[in-house]
Specification:
Blueprint: E1 33-34, E2 39-41, H1 43-47, E3 56-58, E4 61-63, E5 65-77, E6 82-88, E7 101-106, E8 124-134, E9 137-147, H2 150-168, H3 171-174, H4 232-244, E10 254-255, H5 256-263, H6 269-278, E11 282-284, E12 290-293, H7 299-306, E13 315-322, E14 329-336, E15 339-344, E16 352-355, E17 359-363, E18 370-375, E19 378-383, H8 387-399, H9 403-417, E20 436-448, E21 457-468, H10 470-497, H11 503-531, E22 557-563, E23 566-575, H12 592-595, H13 603-609, H14 613-619, H15 621-651, H16 655-682, H17 686-693, H18 714-737, H19 743-782, H20 786-820, E24 837-842, H21 849-867, E25 868-874, E26 886-890, E27 893-900, H22 902-905, H23 910-913, E28 921-926, H24 931-937, H25 944-966, H26 972-991, H27 998-1010, E29 1014-1019, H28 1025-1042, E30 1050-1052, E31 1058-1059, H29 1061-1071, H30 1074-1082, E32 1087-1088, H31 1091-1094, E33 1108-1109
Parallel strand pairs: 1-4, 2-5, 7-9, 23-29, 24-28, 24-29, 25-27, 32-33
Antiparallel strand pairs: 3-4, 5-6, 5-8, 6-7, 8-9, 10-12, 11-12, 13-14, 13-19, 14-15, 15-16, 17-18, 18-19, 20-21, 20-30, 21-22, 22-23, 26-27, 30-31
Helix pairs in contact: 4-6, 10-11, 10-20, 11-20, 14-19, 15-16, 15-19, 16-18, 16-19, 17-19, 18-19, 20-21, 25-26, 26-27, 28-29
Length: 1114
């Protein structure tokens, strides 16, 4: 049979195809390709390679198996369990602009299926796999991906340099003294172009060679070898397959182990099998371990076998083939492994058999449902019925043939010789996935030495660190609200006051609008930036001064701590709650009722010193929005009364019903009038403000036929309203006394009363509008100074940013409390109406910018209880489990609804499960621990702010505990422990409320743990001092949970040295997840401390040697 590609210009089997050499010589001979050594390479090295061949070239050698390490930038997963990673160099500072290489991973191919997982963006991983060309783009098809440790990151680039030097200098050929290098594995590598039999082996690795594959073209063959250009062993394999491959007459071929047992091969056996597959001498049949020979004599049998109804194939269907401008022809195609068989459908032609080796393909530009294929410089087009078929065929053609067998072999080799998989890596899916992501877990094992008669106790410590989805979700919603509030104020100013002719007021109004437009621009740019942000799902500390991140907490993470698989601690870690991009030239926000005696901050003092008591009242945002909401409520009530007069009065024709409605309407109108009078009496200088807006007033407001422009002075409006009520009251009394039988007179009387009602309501409505306009004018009058106006809107922007960060931290803490508690009914406050407890403990110094950060945080937490309310609601979807909090309200009254699954809602305390509003009890503490804290505590500094904060924290905590004890919801042991600890804390704070007194921190953490609270640990960036505090608390929990004394020693697994309690903490700091937090923020796994700073840190806060540096940006 002449089964050839002549119909479409290709070459196949038969007279022409049988003589065709499928393995055309390339610039780099095959002798230099190794399929056994996973050669280390960098992303930059691979990107500089040519996209024409599946090789990584170093000098005269080329490699196909690659070990690549880098940071994941993007992840794509399709429905076929195929995951595509875009990886950049792991050491780059900004991965968003770095060059990227594609790594492809097929589901179910991992060496350790129980650890197979999809890694998220930001992880640094190591991938081992084969280079492959897909659509003319070089990619890595990986059979194993794992997280890397700190040490691997440090030495990876050195490995790449060593590999380049080793092979670029041709050391395998020129030097024979490197038998035990990472590239030799105890073997002598053959010289290029010379057939060298490697006979030595090591236990457990017989018949497998890791040497570089010799040059097939130059291999000497036996003199009487019936297969030219093949080695002796390859000829034996071919002969055995030819003689026994079709013994069963069913096309199954011969198994690889049968061949191995028969010919007793050398160490290059699998390499020779692979070479014969590459050359198209043999093909896979039943599976990837069965082979049969291909020659002109059995091509027809192979085609018949492929077209049997019982033969299972990878792809089949009707295709149209075109080549070199010839007409289209229809064929039935079947693909199995690397064999593609074609039979003519509607014309007469010989069947065709392809061996899909060295086959390139890409989407055709002539048809959307076609692939263009090239083999040995011959091109043709294969067109399918639909686009789905194109994708399926492209996938099978891309991974067909011997590559599956080759991958299994490489997996077995890697599994046998690679080191044990580290327990460092991503944890399995957790119940926190609705609001947490990017899990990173690290586990350490210690043996606790007991007495001589008691065996050692094994302790397994596990830290798990998460990022949170809320880092950007809540700030984006808060920015939209801030944008709305600012827009409303600008529009109201323009609507009510744009006609002002007073030059001074007009200049102030223009200045107001400029500042409002500036804040609106900041909100708009921040929204656009966050919506298009492609970086990690948290705000890195290196971005803490970026204005677009103003509303986002810095370095927000959640961390779990477990001992022997039992969760014993959970923490929220974050940078300082502050508006860092707005800087601290005049300090931070200052809570005026608390800070009025503190000289530390100047911003509020300067602002308030320039205002009169009346101006202070009128610029207070709490009172401003309260009055505004009252006026909006009154206008709604007036509108509703007007509707009822027109509608209900006509519906009810009975005299008794009409009289009842009249009385109700009159009573409600009087109520509105009294509320307006109360508002006027509480509004300083309101008479002068309204009078200034009248015609001829100080503002010289140009009349625009607008209802918001007062038509008369405030006194005149009040007198007119009084007259309206007297007239209305008189008419109602007269109507009650008259017994009007005449229907026409009765109707006239009712219309007269209605008209009086409408006149009265119009007067009330106009009065409300006049007060609104006067309120806007009060701001103009109070903030005539440019500095005062700038400070006012700066504080407004700062407040919005702090509120956004505070709500994000509080929401994260509440969700962490709910999801980390196995039984919410066991919480100490679950049976009471007491709110959950959240402790924010920061480690900032009362010096320089950090003092402004303290003021920002303390000010926000002090007012938070009066500003924000939370509630839990059932989630709207049973499918989408991601938590999307709903936020509404205005600056001084924010309401946050947190969706929870129904199974969590029923576990909540009674009030919370019913959706009642509450605000968690948030207590702020601060303790400076660095060199600036020492300076603040000296005679040249002032740490009175820190002392005042901690005394205030003690007062709030004492009140919370007293309230909780009154409910008698705690067990006796907890009550005794709380009473003892709060007494110790009172004594400690009274003696020394500052000056690095770490006893405060330890006592507060222990109380918080007993009260089932959540702890937020923070410092300036949330990674250095925060890490020291967190690991110190983990050590305290370990000591408390396991009953360990400070003198007991540990022996760490696989390490001979002994450890005491603080050394365990050092191990957590050195090998735990906190150094990973540093790397995620600054690109290096190092804490930011200088040798100078180390002298001032308390001993408990000093990191281990080798884990800190002063030469990283924060």
């Amino acid at each position: 049979m002449d089964a050839s590609f002549d119909q479409f210009g290709g070459s196949g089997w038969g007279e022409q195809g049988g003589q065709q050499d499928f393995n055309m010589p390339t610039p780099y001979q095959r002798s230099h390709i190794t399929d056994k050594i996973p050669i280390p390479a960098t992303v930059e090295d691979l990107l500089t390679m040519s996209n024409e061949e599946e090789k990584y070239v170093i000098g005269a050698y080329s490699f196909n198996t690659i070990k690549l390490m880098g940071r994941i930038v993007n992840v794509f997963t399709d429905t076929n369990q195929c995951t595509t990673y875009e990886i950049c160099d792991g050491m780059v500072a900004d991965p968003r602009v770095a060059r990227r290489f594609v790594v492809i991973r097929y589901g179910g191919t991992d060496l350790h299926p129980d650890m197979e997982q999809v890694f998220s963006e930001g992880h640094t991983v190591q991938a081992v796999g084969k280079l492959r060309l897909f659509n003319n783009r070089l990619s890595l098809v990986s059979f194993h991906i794992r997280d890397v440790t700190m040490d691997e990151i440090e030495i990876y680039k050195m490995e790449c340099k060593l590999a380049k030097y080793y092979f670029s200098k041709n050391l395998p050929e020129n030097f024979h003294g490197l038998e035990n290098t990472i590239f030799r594995n105890g073997y002598s590598l053959p010289r290029a172009g010379v057939m060298q039999s490697v006979m030595q082996s090591t236990p457990g690795r017989s018949n497998i060679s890791t040497s570089i594959t010799p040059n097939r073209q130059n291999q000497p063959t036996q003199q009487y070898n019936q297969y030219p250009n093949l080695s002796n062993q390859q000829a034996k394999i071919m002969d055995y397959i030819k003689r026994f491959g079709d013994a069963n007459k069913d096309g199954t071929g011969v198994h690889v182990e049968q061949i191995r047992a028969s010919i007793k091969p050398g160490q290059n056996f699998m390499s020779d099998i692979q070479y014969l597959l590459d050359e198209g001498k043999i093909y896979t049949t039943l599976d990837d371990d069965h082979f049969s020979i291909i020659d002109e004599d059995n091509a027809n049998d192979i085609i018949k076998w492929l077209f049997k109804s019982t033969t299972k194939v990878d792809c089949k269907g009707i295709v149209e083939m075109t080549a070199d401008g010839a007409r289209k022809t229809r064929w039935e195609a079947r693909l199995r492994g690397n064999l593609l068989a074609l039979e003519a459908v509607d014309f007469t032609a010989e069947p065709v058999l392809f061996v899909c080796e060295r086959l390139e393909f890409w989407p055709s530009n002539k048809s959307q449902n076609a692939l263009s294929l090239r083999q040995n410089s011959k091109e043709f087009m294969m067109e399918f019925v639909s686009g789905d078929n194109v994708d399926k065929w492209a996938m099978q053609l891309g991974v067909c043939s011997h590559r599956v067998t080759q991958a299994e072999y490489e997996q077995a080799l890697f599994a046998h010789y690679s080191h044990d998989i580290s327990k460092t890596g991503c944890s399995p899916p957790s119940p926190f996935s609705s609001f947490l992501l990017s899990q990173l877990a690290k586990e350490q094992t210690f043996n606790l030495f007991q007495s001589a008669n008691i065996p050692n106790k094994k302790v397994v410590l596990k830290e798990t660190m998460y990022e949170t989805r809320l880092s950007f979700l809540i700030p984006q919603e808060m920015i939209k609200l801030s944008h709305k509030w600012t827009n409303e104020m600008r529009d109201e100013l323009l609507d009510k006051l744009w006609g002002i002719k007073n030059s001074t007021m007009l200049d102030t109004l223009h200045m107001f609008v400029r500042h409002l437009n500036s804040n609106i621009e900041i909100h708009t740019q921040a929204t656009e930036f966050l919506e298009n942000y492609m970086g990690p799902s948290f705000r890195p500390s290196v971005e803490k001064y970026r204005l677009a991140f103003l509303h986002v907490p810095t370095n927000l993470h959640v961390q779990m701590f477990s001992i022997d698989s039992k969760n014993v601690g959970h923490f929220v870690t974050s940078g300082a709650l502050t508006a860092m991009p707005l800087r601290y030239s005049n300090g931070g926000r200052k809570y005026k009722q608390i800070f009025q005696k503190s000289p530390a901050s100047e911003m509020w003092n300067k602002f308030l010193s320039n205002l009169t008591p009346q101006s202070i009242d009128q610029t207070d945002e709490g009172r401003f929005y309260k009055r505004k909401q009252t006026l909006l409520k009154l206008k709604r009530m007036i509108g509703e009364l007007s509707r009822r007069i027109d509608m209900e009065w006509q519906i009810n024709n009975k005299k008794e019903a009409a009289d009842k409605i009249v009385v109700e309407l009159f009573a409600e109108s009087k109520q509105i009038h009294e509320m307006l009078l109360d508002l006027i009496n509480s509004f300083p200088n309101i008479y002068n403000l309204v009078d200034a807006l009248c015609e001829g007033g100080l503002a010289q407001l140009q009349r625009k036929n607008s209802d918001s422009v007062p038509r008369d002075t405030l006194s005149s409006q009040l007198d007119l309203l009084e007259a309206h009520f007297v007239s209305l009251n008189s008419k109602m009394r007269a109507a009650e006394k008259l017994d009007i039988k005449n229907e026409e007179k009765k109707q006239n009387c009712e219309e007269n009363i209605k008209s009086s009602f409408h006149s009265t309501l119009d007067g009330l409505h106009h009065l409300a509008l006049s007060i609104e306009s006067a309120q806007m004018l009060s701001l103009i009058q109070c903030l005539r100074s440019k500095n005062d106006c700038q400070t006012f809107f700066h504080l407004q922007l700062r407040h919005d940013a702090l509120l956004s960060q505070a709500i994000t931290l509080a929401t994260t803490s509440l969700l962490l409390l709910i999801y980390s508690s196995k039984n919410l009914n066991d919480l100490n406050y679950s049976k009471t109406n007491t709110s959950p407890l959240i402790i924010n403990f920061s480690f900032l110094s009362c010096y320089g910018d950090e003092q402004g950060m303290i003021e920002d945080a303390f000010d926000m937490w002090q007012m938070f209880h009066d500003v924000a309310l939370f509630r839990f609601i059932p989630t709207n979807s049973s499918v989408i489990q991601t938590c999307f909090p709903q936020i509404e309200g205005f600056r001084t009254n924010i309401r946050i609804s947190i969706p929870l699954p129904s199974e969590k809602i029923v576990e909540l305390p009674e009030g919370m499960s019913k959706g009642e509003w509450f605000c968690p009890k948030i207590i702020y503490w601060n303790l400076g621990v660095n060199h600036e804290a020492s300076l603040a505590a000296s005679s040249v500094g002032d740490n009175s702010l820190e002392e005042m904060i901690n005394r205030n924290g003690l007062k709030q905590l004492d009140e919370y505990i007293s309230t909780l004890l009154l409910t008698q919801s705690m067990d006796l042991n907890s009550v005794e422990a709380i009473n003892r600890l709060i007494c110790d804390l009172r004594q400690t704070v009274s003696v020394n409320a500052s000056k690095k007194n770490l006893s405060i921190f330890k006592l507060v953490m222990e109380i918080n743990r007993i009260l089932s609270g959540v702890c937020i640990l923070s410092c300036q960036s949330g990674k250095d001092r925060t890490s020291m505090a967190l690991t110190l608390e983990e050590g305290r929990i370990l000591k408390e949970t396991c009953g360990i004394s400070n003198q007991q020693v540990f022996k760490r697994k696989n390490i001979n040295s002994l450890f005491k309690m603080m050394e365990i903490v050092s191990c957590l700091r050195k090998d735990g997840v906190r150094r990973e937090n540093c790397r995620k923020n600054v690109g290096k796994p190092l804490y930011k401390f200088s040798p100078f700073q180390m002298n001032f840190l308390p001993k408990e806060f000093r990191p281990p040697l080798g884990t800190f540096t002063n030469f990283v940006s924060t």
